[in-house]
Specification:
It is a single chain. The protein has 492 residues and is an alpha/beta fold. Helix content is 31%, strand content 19%. The chain has 15 helices and 20 strands. The protein has helices at residues 3-12, 54-62, 77-89, 100-104, 118-130, 145-158, 172-182, 218-222, 248-251, 254-265, 372-382, 392-410, 417-424, 430-443, 472-476; strands at 17-18, 43-48, 67-73, 95-97, 111-114, 134-137, 162-164, 189-197, 273-279, 292-297, 304-309, 334-340, 343-347, 352-356, 362-367, 413-415, 453-455, 459-462, 467-468, 482-483. Strands 8, 9, 10, 11, 12, 13, 14, 15, 16, 17, 18 and 19 form a twelve-stranded mixed β-sheet that branches. A hairpin with a 4-residue loop joins strand 18 (459-462) and strand 19. Helix 5 (118-130) runs parallel beside helix 6 (145-158), helix 10 crosses helix 12 and helix 13 (417-424) runs antiparallel to helix 14. The longest helix has 19 residues, at 392-410.
């Protein structure tokens, strides 16, 4: 089965699906019921999805003065009941829901915070805006680029405060470092490189559908995505590695660093040109997102290159200390490197940065964190979206850079290493990046001559319309077909 056939079959498997843009109704799914919040009012928050990242949401909001967690929602009854018991132990009175639609009908919730799987992010955020609730939505804010713009439209139409979960934007150390390099203290920026070198082992392989336990409402878990049998061992978390629900590590961990990279670049639109190179190497499993990849965004001022590596330094570590032996680039594994005429800056974490001159001598260092949830709550009180450090449009643009990179990959074809190198010669930094990727794969026993990488489609985009130029297949993948009853609205 080739890549195009797989894409078509994976989204059509559910049968009854709706194509975005075909809906005729303009009536919101919910009636806006927001209250006027005074400066001394307690903000009432509902948290949706907390089997993983949502636990941080709960902890973050619980520690803020003037904030109260009043409702919980999760489609896994075991997860929901366990958290309800924990809340009772903390003295909280919370209502519990498995269906987010029931939660959004409540009049006594001011904000929702969601950390569901990616394929639910946009629909929950839009429904919440329609219901008159402010939103904290995890990264990436969308499962595809079109969805992200729809959230932005909903936030504007309904006057809602919508924060993206890219917490680096709130950290003073990083904010100062970005301003410093943008001011030209290291000269002109030549290239910005994001890094996601994070260990990712096989998710296994099944030959028959995995049974869904009775305590999980699988129809609600699927929601907007096709309601098809579970063809992997684990329902939770490993959804990241199948395109039908996830976006690979580019959209999982990498969105944080992609956002920082775009922030440093000072770019406020989707890139006008993009391509990707990569594949899923080192094992055969039920995942179909690349574990080794780079994406090239051809911004006019300076290219933005993003690298994903899920394999360790070399094959000897695959069966022993995989997680402790990942490669790095200029001292960073999960971070950003900014190459400038007068030196470079390394951003190795969410709240720190180090600047070096051309001789490699340290010039300046920053490190200071802050509370991203507190920034959201402050904006809920002020009613000013400009008070947000990661307002939804910023989240949409950074998420879209991940999505367009994956679209290039999905439309690509396998080519030998020399053929790929030949295509990269006129792209600054691309050939060198591919060379390091090939060396890393060779160290893990992967010969690209015999097991070729995918060279993605070279795509051009109109950043204003957020549509690809002259490529219908690519434009088709900017959105998806939705399961009936869970359509992301074409008109919010």
């Amino acid at each position: 089965m080739n890549r195009r056939t797989f894409l078509a079959s994976s989204v059509l498997a559910a049968g009854a699906l709706v194509v975005p843009g075909c809906a005729t109704s303009t009536t919101p799914a919910f009636t806006s019921r927001s209250r006027r919040i005074g400066p001394n009012d307690t903000i009432r928050v509902a948290v949706i999805g907390f089997n993983s990242r949502g636990q941080d949401h709960l902890a973050g909001f619980r520690k803020l003065p003037g904030v109260k967690v009043v409702a919980l929602c999760d489609v896994d009854r075991h997860v929901l009941d366990a958290e309800a018991q924990r809340a009772a132990g903390l003295g909280e009175t919370v209502r519990t829901y498995t269906d987010v639609r029931k939660l959004l009908e409540s009049d006594d919730i001011d904000c929702i915070s969601t950390a569901t799987p990616n394929h639910w992010h946009a629909l929950i955020a839009i429904w919440a805006c329609q219901a008159g609730k402010d939103v904290y939505v995890e990264k990436p804010v969308s499962h595809n680029a079109w969805e992200g713009r729809q959230i932005v439209k909903a936030a504007r139409k309904y006057g809602r405060i919508v924060q993206t979960g890219t917490q680096s934007r709130s950290n003073p150390g990083l904010r100062e470092a970005v301003a410093w390099v943008q001011a030209g203290n290291l000269g002109r920026i030549k290239l910005v490189r994001g890094l996601c070198y994070k260990p990712r082992q096989s998710i296994g392989h099944v030959t028959a559908p995995t049974p869904i336990p009775p305590h999980i409402d699988y129809d609600l878990w699927c929601g907007p995505s096709p309601h098809q049998p579970l063809m992997r061992e684990k329902l939770h978390y490993d959804w990241h590695w199948q395109f039908v629900t996830g976006n690979g590590d580019l959209g999982n961990q990498g969105i944080h660093q992609m956002d920082i990279a775009r922030w440093v670049s000072g770019e406020h639109a989707i890139s006008p040109a993009v391509f990707s190179v990569g594949g899923r190497f080192g094992y055969q499993d039920d995942g179909n997102t690349p574990n080794s990849q780079f994406v090239y965004h051809g911004y006019r001022k300076a290219p933005l290159i993003f690298e994903v590596r899920g394999l360790p330094k070399s094959k000897e570590f695959q069966n022993t200390t995989w997680t402790k032996n990942m490669p790095d680039y200029k001292g960073a594994q999960i971070g950003v490197v900014v190459d400038c005429e007068g030196g470079h800056m390394v951003i190795p974490s969410y709240d720190s940065a180090i600047a070096y001159d051309t001789a490699g001598r340290e010039v300046k260092r920053w490190k200071e964190g802050a509370d991203h949830y507190a920034n959201f709550i402050a904006a809920v009180h002020s009613r000013k979206p400009t008070d947000l450090n990661a307002e939804i449009e910023e989240g949409h643009l950074s998420s879209a850079l991940c999505h367009t990179g994956n679209i290039s990959y999905q439309l690509g074809k396998k080519l030998g290493p020399e053929a790929i190198r030949d295509r990269l010669k006129d792209k600054p930094g691309a050939e060198e990046t591919f060379g390091r990727l090939a060396e890393h794969l060779a160290a893990n026993g992967v010969d690209l001559a015999g097991n070729p990488a995918v060279l993605g489609e070279f795509l051009k985009m109109d950043p204003h319309s957020e549509r690809f130029i002259g490529n219908r297949q690519a434009n088709h993948l900017l959105t998806r077909e939705y399961s009936k009853g869970f359509e992301v609205p074409a008109r919010v």
